[in-house]
Design goal:
Two copies of one chain form a homodimer.
Chain A (H helix, E strand, L loop, with lengths): L3 E6 L22 E2 L5 E2 L1 H12 L4 E7 L3 H8 L4 E5 L5 H14 L8 E6 L2 E3 L1 H15 L5 E6 L10 E4 L5 E8 L4 H9 L3 E10 H11 L5 H6 L9 H4 L7 E6 L3 E3 L3 H7 L4 E2 L2 E3 L4 E7 L5 E4 L2 E8 L2 E6 L7 H5 L7 E4 L2 E9 L2 E8 L8 E2 L4 E8 L1 E6 L2 E6 L3 E4 L5 E5 L3 E8 L9 E2 L9
Parallel strand pairs in A: 1-4, 1-6, 4-5, 8-12, 14-16, 15-17, 16-18
Antiparallel strand pairs in A: 2-3, 6-11, 7-13, 8-11, 9-10, 9-11, 10-12, 18-19, 20-21, 21-22, 22-29, 23-30, 24-27, 24-29, 25-26, 25-28
Helix pairs in contact in A: 1-4, 3-6
Chain lengths: ~450, ~450
């Protein structure tokens, strides 16, 4: 049976500032050790685990436009990407990905689809359960099968599912929204499970639900009208209204790493990056993405994180109150992963900005121009080809290119290529960019 | 009576890392509020206070070569600078400055000289006392007059002076080296004062002492043989052996800001730079020299400091144990004040380094070349003149200059001028620099 796994990749990730920001969500932070000593992000970890459990599963990431570059950068081209034109909550997102699977990927209506969050911190047994959920849905066990996580404490953060019996697979008696502490205790005493946001169904079932609730002909039509859809959650629109629904219990490791406090609990080691930890530190975690050292002395129960965006120093418990502070920061994005590599802002002046650009081997940026700024590129390492106003030239470390406003330019890396870009002009903005569909005729 | 005040400016300042480093000593950190809302450093504060008390005093800074640029940058050209060729403790340093005053500045042997540390945190009454000390020495009250600070607690950090009586000016009965806590209590019960390192004498007295202990003819001879002098402190060589010595007691504010703990006590406000402090923070001080924000949440009794060199997060008490950690850091200097402005390293790669250079109006760097690296300058703001291989050209924001290895170059700022310098080559080092005494003939 073909297995379709859809990872919902959302969130702007302010809660993990300064590692996450408006364009880098928490799932892209490289903070987990892989077997071979490198670091990987949540999305890389989840994707690797899925591939390890079922190397043939068709994995699709449902996400917004802002994350496409980072996904390509971190996962390569192995996963399909279904891009939402804008955010409209989970029901429209799942309807869109269902239409995409059917109309673009030609997935049959009988095939099972499992919807998962992109950011659970789990072991491989979780993805074995995900596969099992898909098989149950594919076999028509019921219209919807969802995963119920056995609770480890009376949490106020999750919705609850109360099953009819204690079997591994049970019909659902009822759903409960996020309770208070007393409510959580009561539900657990009634055998409730956490709703982990994992749902399996046959593609045809979901398409039918989508057409019942949204007027559209096919994927392209749904995409075109997406902006006008009402925001509604999949739980509310479908799950809680479906009578033929079962829950499969899961008792393995499952952590939701939404705050610095929970994230640091999942870190295999107390420090990532250049960090010196004094002997008197207790229960301190540090993630340093800068090139200079962080020295911690005599701290207790604290998290420290430094990135090009800023520096957080927080008591672990207090770190859950971070959001209003981060909302108040009005700052240029200082770092971003792109499909072709990454950039980092290294200096800002009133009428100039200096950026370090790293292009991965074989990658090139879009062919583009700027209206209101001149740029100077100094290549500091690697080899490649620059195209300026339609003329290609080889470039290597030491070369300097002047790119006056209006000139069309791109660079393609033949080996990893790094350059320092100095932007000069009034009102420098990422929005001052005119893209061209391809390189000029002379280049074809 | 002419008054000569000599400020001894020493120290590598590891205890206030990351604000101080091998080339920026703690006295140059701009952390104190001036009356008009700007920040000033300890040396600026002390110099301003001296000028306010006695605008005619001749102030000399006795220091090492590495501090000359920072002193010019922070004090302009108002103070004399007597440069030690290397560090040889306080007696050789004071002998050298005495010879310099006599032979270079033609100060008469009858004039009083007062030696002060450059970094006490004091009010103006301290410098009134310094002036009084000088007058007493000038009048021949005794060969040596020193300042005794009335102790506020039994400190183990200072040497003690025991006066013969309780008068404002008393003969010295005896000196005591840094005691343990019990010793300190005992001395204080005997009326002891802290030895604050302030000494006054007539210039002739000190020159005589210098000639007794060191063989030299004049300042230039002493300078030439300085490296071969034995390290010995002024206290040991002179003060403790002098029978005709008095102490003048001082009861005003006097703080020694040698550690983060004491430094933060003197800060008028808890945060300097871009800082967000959560409500739950208590007794937290932050000094942030970076352009990105520091967010502190739920911290107690902590100091946080971020600079281009690194980031410190420490319990205040624990911060006094910082030195061995900082000693273990082996890192490129990331920021420096120069006589002509400042530079900051903004990117480091294996075979390139990118630096932001800021030249103050009217200033120019030395005319120089490099053997093993090419450089590219992109001017991002301001106007000036560049000299490349003897040819002067005007430069302004947007201009790009290529400076291949071997080419002689300098730049002079006609208004504040900022440029991005990309250095490229193997083994990039600050030592790869050949200076030329002046601009080529063609420039004269």
């Amino acid at each position: 049976m073909n297995m379709n796994i859809v990872l919902l990749s959302g969130g702007s990730g302010k809660r993990l500032w300064p590692l996450s920001n408006d364009i880098r969500s928490k799932q892209f932070i490289k903070i987990f050790r892989t077997g071979d000593g490198e670091y990987e992000s949540m999305v890389q970890r989840v994707y690797r685990q899925i591939r390890s459990v079922d190397r043939d599963a068709a994995v699709t990431i449902a996400t917004s436009k802002t994350q496409v570059s980072a996904i390509h950068n971190q996962l390569g081209n192995g996963a399909g990407i279904c891009v939402e034109p804008c955010r409209r909550d989970t029901f429209p997102a799942i309807a869109l990905v269902a239409a995409w699977l059917h109309d673009v990927k030609k997935v049959s209506e009988d095939e099972p689809v499992v919807i998962c969050p992109v950011d659970p911190y789990v072991d491989e047994d979780y993805f074995q359960a995900v596969g099992e959920l898909g098989r149950l849905a594919g076999e028509g066990s019921s219209n919807l099968v969802l995963m119920g996580i056995e609770p480890t404490y009376p949490s106020e953060k999750y919705g609850y599912v109360i099953p009819e019996d204690e079997n591994k697979l049970s019909r659902v008696k009822t759903f409960k929204e996020k309770p208070d502490l007393e409510g959580a205790k009561k539900y657990i005493s009634q055998g409730a499970l956490w709703n982990g946001g994992v749902f399996a169904f046959r593609l045809g079932y979901l398409l039918k639900k989508a057409h019942e609730l949204i007027k559209f002909s096919d994927y392209w039509d749904l995409y075109a009208g997406y902006e006008n859809l009402t925001k509604i959650s999949f739980d509310y629109a479908v799950v809680e209204k479906e009578p033929d629904i079962k829950v499969m219990r899961f008792s393995g490791k499952w952590k939701d790493l939404g705050t610095w406090n929970t994230l640091t609990e999942a870190m295999e080691e107390p420090a990532v990056g250049k960090v010196m930890m004094g002997d008197a530190c207790e229960n301190v975690h540090v993630v340093n993405e800068l090139d200079v050292p962080v020295l911690c002395m005599g701290l207790k129960n604290a998290v420290v994180s430094a990135s090009p965006e800023g520096i957080l120093v927080s008591d672990k418990e207090q770190s859950s109150y971070i959001k209003p502070y981060v909302d108040s920061i009005d700052q240029q994005i200082m770092f971003a992963e792109k499909s072709w590599g990454s950039f980092r802002v290294i200096d800002i002046e009133d009428e100039s900005m200096t950026i370090k650009v790293t292009l991965n081997t074989g990658c090139g940026m879009n062919y583009h121009s700027h209206e209101r700024r001149n740029e100077v590129w100094t290549v500091v390492s690697g080899k490649g080809r620059a195209v300026v106003n339609g003329v290609e030239q080889p470039v290597k470390a030491g070369d300097v290119l002047r790119l006056p406003a209006g000139c069309r330019h791109k660079i393609i890396a033949d080996s990893e290529l790094k350059l320092i870009e100095v932007q000069m002009g009034k009102d420098i903005s990422v929005h001052d960019k005119i893209k061209y569909p391809a390189v000029d005729q002379s280049m074809v």
